[in-house]
Amino acid sequence: MKLTETGYAKINLGLDVLGLRPDKYHEVAMVMQTISLADTVTFTESPELKVTTDLAGLEGGPSNLAWKAAVLMGEYAHREPRVHIHIEKKVFLAAGLAGGSTDAAAVLRGLNRFWELDLSGEKLERLGAKLGSDVPFCVAGGTALATGRGEILTPLPDLPPLQLVLAKPALEISTPWAYREFDKQKNVVHPDIEGMTQAVRDGDVQGVLRRFGNVLEPVTAGAHPEIREIQRQMLENGAEPAMMSGSGPTVFGIVKDKETGEKIAGILQAQRLETAVAYMTGRKNV
Question: In this protein, which residues make up the domain named GHMP kinase N-terminal (predicted)?
């Protein structure tokens, strides 16, 4: 038996940090969105759990979130996870795009089907919350408001499949570092997450775009000026708006059509940046 799942990347259309919680996590309010840039996760039977990837240097062992997801599903189902999980990576690594989280969510969905467990999407999201804050969102994706530490999800109506271009400089940003540095910031400009959420519900795409904002962007861009340079080049060549996703370093820009996205990607690729052209995707039925 062979089964395939798709792990879609996510971007943050709005990201606000509301403070430090007693459990040492940060309270957040985010509008999250899946996009067509995606990993392919394939499941086949195996004498023992094995996770492999097509990227040299990306470990598939116990430190990989996909492995942890398989172990968690095995524990829940009271069975040995005798399965070979192979991940073909397209989502940039350590990029603010939930690449590891989306693979873990794909494993939860895939093993649910592979073992015919018939678990609901809500149950898979609760299991995913044990693995990481972005995993619950990645189970069904689409457009959603995420609160708490990111695991409390309110699904929103799907936005249209807006086109976008993404570029990642050769940086690795530690999310804990970004949040620690954020805690030192003064005069933070908070995005209007409530207004953005209402604009999504109203189908007001321009209202959504006007409210783009990420409180972690000044932190990461302050330490790494190349992020502002990528934004500048995107805006000058037809993207509007352009913003960093998550704690970075990937920058994405909304473009009017695929051709504009490909033109911008070509310019940035020539500067040795990882680039992709993608579009927003809707919520999956799980």
Answer: 64-142
Q: Tell me the domains of the chain and their CATH numbers.
A: 2-156 (3.30.230.10), 163-279 (3.30.70.890)
Take residue 246 and report the two structure tokens written for it: 């998550």
* Other Cβ atoms closer than 10 A to 272: 8
State pLDDT tens for residues 169-204: 999 898 889 999 999 988 899 999 999 999 999 999
pTM (two decimals): 0.95
DSSP for 98-133?
-HHHHHHHHHHHHHHHHTT----HHHHHHHHTTT-T
Active-site annotation, residues: 10, 134
CA 123 to centroid of chain Cα atoms: 20
